[in-house]
Amino acid sequence: MRSLRLFRRAANRLVRLSRFLTLRTAANRLARPARFLTLRTALAPLSIILLATSGCGSVFKDVNVLSEADEIALGREFSREIERELKLYRDPEVVRYVDELCQGLALHSKRSNIPYYIKVVDTDEVNAFALPGGFLYVNRGLISISGTEAELAGVIAHEIAHVVARHGAKAMTRQLGLEIILGLISGRNPTGVRRVASQLAGVGGILSMLHHSREAEREADALAVVNLREAGYDPEGFSAFFEKLLEINDRDPGAFATLFTTHPPSRERIENTRKQAAALPVLEGLITDSERFRQIKDMLPPLEKNPLENEKAE
Ligand SMILES: [Zn+2]
Questions:
Q1: Which of 140, 212, 227, 241 is the most buried (most CB within 10 A)?
Q2: Number of alpha carbons in the 13 Å side-chain half-sphere of residue 243
Q3: pLDDT digits (tens, 9 = 90+) for 240-274
């Protein structure tokens, strides 16, 4: 079984490599298990080469196996599935505000060519997440806990960065395998996504599948800092937000459990984003806060348990 897995992995790598070699169709065929047994012998030397070269990484690591259309189709399938379970917050003014904030950031991101779909989730939980292909979810609790518009924009820019760098698509392909992914989005298997989602135990499983490596988190942070500045926001909001959350979390572990599980912040990440921002040319007039943000925040129902209020009381 182990050699079989290794072989599949090598064949999948070949698919990625084939992007450069324009051999995609042939390579895709090799990745399919039905065919690979007969091709196994012929491919063995190639798979050894692929395995041997995979250590250097950089060629393979940054290659996304899905086309843009595939990636958007994948995100759409999972967004439909996830929304069967999530309760969305539908206040039109709040939704419009969050949509405009996200669209403004997306427009200045390094992947402004795709449409972004923004939803506000009706939960106290402090979190935001992105599915592959530009499907963003911002929790109501995140808005409530953000001290300024720049803080909220910082977290959203980080999520957009995961879409820009295609981290979600890569993570899902890594976890589910290319063949399952292509099957899910081909339309030949309409119940497939539901089945996979139910095996993953719904939203929680889908989110844990989107768990990103430290390297991916660092890359998203760096992209977010640039994106924030380009969109006119002070990137210090991002660093300050996570610094504040880390301090609260030190005293009350679990206060931001969901956010910390999906996007573990660290002093190192905060320092890196500060250093990066400080090294960039000074830009005057960056937005830190807005009257509209405060109005929107006031419109939201109070959090059942607000860790910031505990902090004030101390
Ligand atoms: Zn992240």
A1: 227
A2: 13
A3: 999 998 888 888 888 888 788 777 788 999 999 99
Q: 22 lies in which domain range?
A: 1-63
Q: How far apart are CA 40 and CA 30, in angstroms?
A: 9
Alpha helices (runs of H) in 200-256, residue ranges in sequence order: 202-209, 214-230, 236-251
The answer to whether residues 232 and 148 belong to one domain is: yes
Query: 173-201: per-residue pLDDT in tens?
Result: 888 888 888 888 876 666 676 677 677 76
Ligand 1 centre to CA of 84 (Å) is 24
Which residues is 183 bridged to in the sheet?
Answer: none
Query: Is 200 contained in some domain?
Result: no
Burial of 223 per CB tally in 10 Å (0-12, 13-18, 19+)? buried
Expressed in angstroms and rounded, the spacing between residue 158 Cα and the centre of ligand 1 is 6
The rounded Å distance from CA 21 to ligand 1 centre is 32
User: Is residue 233 in a domain?
Assistant: yes
- Both 16 and 162 in a single domain? no
Please report whether residue 177 resides in a domain.
no
Q: Report the number of distinct structural domains present in the chain.
A: 2
